[in-house]
Amino acid sequence: xxxxxxxxxxxQPVPRKEDMRLITGKGRYADDLNLDGQAYAAMVRSPxxxxxxxxIDTKAALAVPGVLSVLSGFDFLADRLSPIPNKxxxxxxxxxxxxxxxxxxxxxxxxxxxxxxxxRFVGEAVAxxxxxxxxxxxxxxxxxxxxxxxxxxxxxxxxAAAPDAPRVRDEHSSNVCIDAQAGDAELTEIAFRKAAHIAxxxxxxxxxxxxxxxxxxxxxxxxxxxxxxxxxxCSGQTLRLRRDLxxxxxxxxxxxxxxxxxxxxxxxxxxxxxxxxxxxxxxxxRVGRPVKWTSERSEVxxxxxxxxxxxxxxxxxxxxDGNFLxxxxxxxxxxxxxxxxxxxxxxGLEIMSSIYRMPAAHFRARAVLSxxxxxxxxxxxxxxxxxxxxxxxxxxxxxxxGFDRVELRLRNLVSQSELxxxxxxxxxxxxxxxxxxxxxxxELGDWNGFAARKAEARKRGRCRGIGVANYVDTATGIPRxxxxxxxxxxxxxxxxxxxxxxxxxxxxxxxxxxxxWLGVPFDMVRLITGDTDVVDVGxxxxxxxxxxxxxxxxxxxxxxxxxxxxxxxxxxLQKSPSEIGFADGQFTAQGGPVMSLAEVAAAMNARTDLPxxxxxxxxxxxxxxxxxxxxxxxxxxxxxxxxxxxxxVEIVRHTTVDDVGKAxxxxxIHGQTHGGIAQGVGQALLEHCFYDxxxxxxxxxxxxxxxxxxxxxxxxFTTEISEVPSTTHPLGMRPxxxxxxxxxxxxxxxxxxxxxxxxxVTHMExxxxxxxxxxxxxxxxxxxxxxxxSIEQEISLR
Amino acid sequence: MYDFTYHRPxxxxxAIELVSxxxxxxxxxxxxxxxxxxxxxxxxxxxxxxxxxxxALEGGRREGDKLIIGAMTKHAAVAASEVVRQAIPAxxxxxxGIGDPLVRNRGTIGGSIANADPAxxxxxxxxxxxxxxxxxxxxxxxxxxxxxxFETALQAGEIITAVHFPxxxxxxxxxxxxxxxxxxxxxxxxxxxxxxxxxxxTGAGSSVFRFAxxxxxxxxxxxxxxxxxxxxxxxxxxxxxxxxxxxxxxxxVVFAKRAVASALSR
Lengths: 798, 266
Description:
The complex is a heterodimer. Chain A is an alpha+beta fold. Chain A has a domain at 480-625: Aldehyde oxidase/xanthine dehydrogenase, molybdopterin binding domain (Aldehyde Oxidoreductase, domain 4, 2-Layer Sandwich). Chain A is built from 21 helices and 28 strands. Mean pLDDT of chain A is 95; it is low at 784-798. By secondary structure, chain B is of the alpha+beta class. Among the domains of chain B are: 1-57, Uridine Diphospho-n-acetylenolpyruvylglucosamine Reductase, domain 2; 170-264, Enolase-like, domain 1 (2-Layer Sandwich), CATH 3.30.390.50. In chain B, the strands form four sheets. In chain B, strands 4-5-10-6-7 form a five-stranded antiparallel beta sheet. In chain B, strands 11-12-13-14 form a four-stranded antiparallel beta sheet, sandwiched between helices. In chain B, strands 1-3-2 form a three-stranded parallel beta sheet, covered by helices on one side. The interface between A and B is medium-sized, with 25 and 18 residues.
């Protein structure tokens, strides 16, 4: 399956050119930067989930040798800085809008990087100590005396929605920030009355930590001569982050330079501004020295943006033949302590019906505050949660009514002739071969051979189960992107673009585009990103937009380069530009090569007899706003074996077919699928940001308790790429990279429930730990200390 | 990490002198628990006396019917040792399953048992094999050594020099892995000796303990099936976000059977 590259053009599995640099320690991450005279920041973090800040005494801290300054939110206010702006909803035109049912605006309150009134989660930064060394900063941090008055807290999603729950914000009458509806209640009600079978599920998709390999870091610098800040940090953003930093620092955007170099993972944890980024810049101005902050792993777990945390109650109505009639339910997403981003109830809800034909649907969607770390979109923003729910509903109704799980899905998948298809939430899926892809995944996963494998496993005392799950992703994100290409006389090409690699391999895949379109050797393409002194437009990397939008602007800019070159060649050869061709880096006339791209660039630089517009560097720009969404989809098949004595699960096969429309670099896509599967399996089996319900403490606060997936729990994957061109992308591309994760929760749990069906088990909550499985086998409530008590109670989300 | 003074004596005598002279001194024997605690500022010592250069404390050998392992012998060395594999293969298996390769190449047997983490692997072998802990001052019977949560019979200034393991007829170790840390949520060391069967349980209580019911049943019939009727009371067992006391109680019996099966397979 993994063939070797035969060239460096589009479609070739070219090994990543950045890897040797990254794996030999030559990456340039934020923490690798050290500036002359730099000081160090340490954060004082809240030990309470909820408490009033009565006072902050910095005297003892300031007396610690080496401590330069101790800053709190009071200083921040005194310096007339601004709170961090939120971007609560995606306003992409392809996205389903979400508005309060009663017509009032959603509750949104910006956050201060350092609070002055209350702390609202364990680990919230309250003060910052700047010192000559990190050790002195930490010594100082221990001496900051904060007088707290502890208050009652609420951490669990469903509890936080209750009217009498301890409130996170005094400014709002409850913790519910938005209470919206989507779909058509009446049509749905009518459809449910006609149902022959109704499947119901109540479940909670627990909160997890993104855990990128690179901990967060930021270095701030301030030039008092120019009044300009420079911030070096890790982020999935460039220009939006610069804008947000300028807002917080209360200066024009031109007074902020942001530099993002190598970034060791994101997954959403650094998709938005975080408090420490403006804080180091401000501190640099206050102490007159550059200031560096690097998160330790325990800070990562307690204060990074976290992911998921959605409680769902849902029903699926099916007729006697197995046709889906409607679905309905209620989703409650946990925002944590801040109204940062409501994506999980927006992007999550809008594809709740996945790629199945669903005549009607109606859901209530709420986002609630709680005394936990803020959540943000996490690979892939709301979708894995609802795909899991949909796929569990299908297996549940299949089990109840005796439908074959594969047949039932195939019967209800939207067929090619029905596309484009508008789902009941208003999302329009562009194109694809949903049925063909599912059939291929089922074949590749040898669904038909499962019975024999199950029988063989039985002889070894193992219970074997198989699951299948389809998925779709909505790729939107910031719609504007820009590329600037410059061809140099030596044949090198610089690509300046607004996206920024967080580990996705842009240096390689974008170079393949240039190699394909301009015929420039792969190694002569240089990618320049992440520095706002060079990059002026672009949206960063999120929501499957890196290659999807990057390819469009690079393609258009490449074509402009060729057109410009044709004009130059035409003038030099005294021919019409229409007589000039271009292929493999050479301009041609009458079928033969006449000038190379490099020669044209040299001529433009050297010759003064060319018209003004054709003189100077050979460069072209494309700045484009793409309002179409991308809809990657696919199907995964997972097989597990369970040791019933202890409840251990082993994933023995995992097969994926993901449609990416057009694969630029299949090697990178397979790699991202592998990582994505591991991320999804981690949530399904192991990971959980466990907050203690009574104290609000994060009990999984280090890698000694937060269980990450490791290579030894995963099998060798079978991953296949499907390429049905997207009709809404000029090059047919769909995003890749989130496909590994999106169906993983559903397919793993479906396989586990199938394995346990002989024990009468019909559902399994996540993470499906050995103890939870062991309890299910024995008919005990699945409750263990890992489950908040309230999930076991009758949760009514309606 | 707070400041401390680092010492690296090359002889046991120097080490004893240093650790006795400083009231807030701590011995460093691999540091796989101590260093993280220092880095997280959970512990503070004026002096660290690193034993890694005291070469007399490192290495293992067989002497008659006992296996002698120096206190500073690393887990990886025990796991790979032909002498250990021949004499007590279960001990090599145990050492090879501690933490990860980085931990096994740094952590030492003396450091592990002196720390007496309730979820550590080694204490189960010391108790399960009825080993003797040798210090610079005396010999301490395995049954007397572990006295509570992170507590041992060691006195101030006392240094473990070696552990003497009597060679059993056969032995086995099996553990329920902690999903994150790879410590033992439950670890069972079973040894069949001329003096009878010994079963030690780690990870499930505040300190390693012997499993008397299983010992009695196995004395009558050394087979996994002998434990079929045994059950363990969950009362008083550890309970945390990874395993309830009830699940641990079940695991104790299951892993005792697996340890017996392992012992019989050699």
